[in-house]
């Protein structure tokens, strides 16, 4: 491989035959490899490696340009039973890396254990992006930019047949546009989303599911003004209230819970990676708090799982985009066609003068 990059194209098949003679006798001369009628940048040759010299995978070849300049070409060479320096175990060996084989077998074993014992799902906004389902006895979905209503919509796309514990986290993204909408419109929309959440939660409780809501953390973006601070407390207060009401319903068979931490438990320097997202440290603390509440056979941590419960963002969870309008979170229409009063306020905000519009177009092109 590597003949499609300069100066690799200077190496003809005849030149390659001469170069490869240092490793053994040629059985089938060098040929170009085609995909249908197109060159792939690869060549193939069949050798008898009777000189007992192995070809390195990163094979450096000297080639002379038309002007007489000496250039180095790096080719990638592969053949069966070729020794190579493995980056996983930092050793030179032939064939599959034993460390990778062991890791693959371990993953298969853990996968089987999880399929048989996982009855919990975690669904939330991008604060769940560093949750690692390979280290948790749960399936994790992180919906980037999701409001409360979007998380309710996501539940329609989840297979909950074998699930009996559902952990939901959202509400922080509801605060993003409070300064645009104003307190009254924002409160109307948010109450609608909270009512939707209560309806969905009660429906799950009637089916015997246990539902736990996580509070909105004091992320820096929620602490900018008194308005954002109050709106976060408003959401947490109402989420706590719908859980209290749910636990008074006699017809339900599931359990509802509201998981909150005191603001003093958060360190702004270590618990947030930026102005919006929880750090791995804060997420592990939340997981520990959930484990304190969940029953013994539903703990998120399990000794069988060797991986950490958190990882780099989106490396260990299922990432998704919000289903529904970005303003009212309702399905079947987009924000451009949103009939809600909140959208009219946004449209007014978007109307600009002709000069501003031209400038906006220039910025978009850039």
Overall number of structural domains: 3
- What is the element string, with H for helices and E for strands? HEEEEEEHEEHEHHEHEHEHH
The CA-CA distance between the termini, in Å, is 36 Å
Q: From the helix content, strand content and strand pairing, which structural class follows?
A: alpha/beta
Q: Strand percentage, roughly?
A: 15-25%
What keywords describe this structure?
366 residues; alpha/beta; Rossmann fold; 3 domains; six-stranded parallel β-sheet; two-stranded antiparallel ribbon; 9 helices; 19% strand; elongated; disordered C terminus
Protein architecture, described:
By secondary structure, the chain is α/β, with parallel strands linked by helices. It folds into three domains: 8-82, no CATH class; 84-116; 118-350, Rossmann fold (3-Layer(aba) Sandwich). Helices cover 33% and strands 19% of the residues. The chain contains nine helices and twelve strands. The protein has helices at residues 13-20, 98-117, 148-155, 178-181, 183-206, 226-246, 280-293, 341-350, 354-365, and strands at residues 25-35, 38-48, 58-64, 70-76, 84-86, 91-93, 120-124, 139-143, 165-169, 210-214, 256-259, 318-320. The longest helix is centred in the middle third of the chain and has 24 residues, at 183-206. It starts with 12 loop residues before the first helix and ends with a helix.
